[in-house]
């Protein structure tokens, strides 16, 4: 794993970026079906001739959702991008942890609302997992032990032998 924040951002961006060419391929294939492309529902009659369109729609839908999900949710690639962006802008690891926590909580609330409105039990479990991960980051930051958190393992400490002094401010 690279130690430079810029290089770590490039590595983290590769995950969500893999969904862009697949989305483009599914979009092109979907355009060949003759049915309109609608993101929220395939809106085609259920018959054998529409199976191809339905498969294209599902491929398109899944790749768009995975792209957005990977960018937005902590502790996935989005948190790596945000962490390294903040470090490049001069933030201390403790400050970056605090910002990530402040971004993660509203995201978890929005995902919880979406899961509850749609009756998505898997989404509810996902929200619980995200909350648990955010709580672990908060505890590591509060204890001055950010270097023990998986998100910060490869982060070089700034201004001293460890991150513990900086993490006290969180």
UniProtKB/TrEMBL annotation:
PANTHER family (alphabetical): MEMBRANE-ASSOCIATED ZINC METALLOPROTEASE M50B, STAGE IV SPORULATION PROTEIN FB
Family: Belongs to the peptidase M50B family.
Organism: Emiliania huxleyi (strain CCMP1516)
Co-factor requirement: Zn(2+)
Ranges annotated as spanning the membrane: 9-31, 51-76, 96-117
Recorded GO MF terms: metallopeptidase activity
Keywords in alphabetical order: Hydrolase, Membrane, Metalloprotease, Protease, Transmembrane, Transmembrane helix, Zinc
Protein name: Derlin
Domain of life of the organism encoding this protein: Eukaryota
Keyword Transmembrane helix: yes
GO biological process: proteolysis
